Known about the structure:
Layout: H1 6-17, E1 22-25, E2 31-34, H2 36-42, H3 46-49, H4 54-60, E3 62-64, H5 77-83, E4 88-95, E5 101-112, E6 118-127
Antiparallel strand pairs: 1-2, 1-6, 3-4, 4-5, 5-6
Amino acid sequence: MAQHDVELILLRQLASCLSVPIVLFGPKGDVLFYNEPAEAMLGLRFQETGPLTPDETERRVHLTDEGGREIPRADRPSVIALGQQRPVHAQMWFTTADGVRRQMEVTAFPLLAQTGGLLGAAVMFWERAAR
């Protein structure tokens, strides 16, 4: 993560130690990092993909509602956390690189610098237990 704010570097280090899947986004919506638990859920290895643009992310992970309708970019938790600079929680379905469709709980929150600028967003997610 060369040339990134120290807060993002520290959060990446923390994310590497967490058991919950987490994806770190830059302020323009690019994926800067995702941890091993996220790799398992997404069917992608960060060492193989590296950072991803928003378009690359959409090609690899499809977000849909219960009926299978694509969630518009503006309604995605990462986009809300970045654009509105507020936390958001949602339920959605991921169809990932491995072709598996999973019902997910997603929590996204903005990352703000001490000076008030937007550094990016963190998105944590986990598979929703079947009832």
